[in-house]
Design a protein that fits this description.
This is Tripartite tricarboxylate transporter TctB family protein. There is one protein chain. The chain is mostly helical. The protein folds into 2 domains: 2-56; 68-132, no CATH class. It is built from 5 helices and no strands. Helix 1 (2-23) packs antiparallel against helix 2 and helix 4 packs across helix 5. The protein starts with a helix and ends in a 14-residue tail after the last helix.
Length: 146
């Protein structure tokens, strides 16, 4: 129970920092009427509500992972941290393919199917974000093409 309350309090502090950071987002003359800050404020609001819920009603019988599951969580965490650092220099497709493959494999997929899932997600999400939604993503490292 104490772990849930500590985690809830830490998340509230992080959400308040997120709100502070979002409040510094500049508004251009061509923004929509709502502005660019609303989505980060909404995310922080949901995090605060969930955190307050964890503080007021903690899980009395929380089971913490041990052994191999901690290793799996560490691999997933390292992959996502690496993804955050790799997406700018390597573009969207390569890091997304790699991390999606790792996470698909961890969920329990066969390595070959996880690799195919990673390639499909990397390319499919790029098409969704770039072509359909019109976001300015760079697909591959500079000089490689798109």
């Amino acid at each position: 129970m104490r772990g849930d309350r500590i985690f809830g309090a830490v998340m509230i502090v992080l959400a308040l920092g997120y709100i502070l950071t979002a409040s510094r987002i500049g508004t251009s003359f061509m923004s929509d009427p709502v502005g660019p800050r609303v989505f980060p404020y909404m995310v922080a609001g949901v995090v605060i509500l969930c955190s307050v819920s964890m503080i007021l009603r903690p899980d009395p019988e929380a089971e913490w992972p041990a052994g191999p599951m901690l290793l799996q969580l560490g691999i997933a965490f390292a992959a996502l941290i690496g993804y955050a650092f790799a997406i700018k220099p390597l573009g969207f497709i390569l890091p997304t393919t790699f991390v999606a493959g790792i996470l698909s494999w961890q969920i329990g997929g066969h390595p070959a199917r996880a690799a195919i899932s990673g390639v499909g997600l990397g390319i499919g999400l790029f098409v969704l974000f770039r072509v359909i939604l019109g976001l300015g993503l760079r697909g591959l490292p500079a000089g490689w093409g798109f």
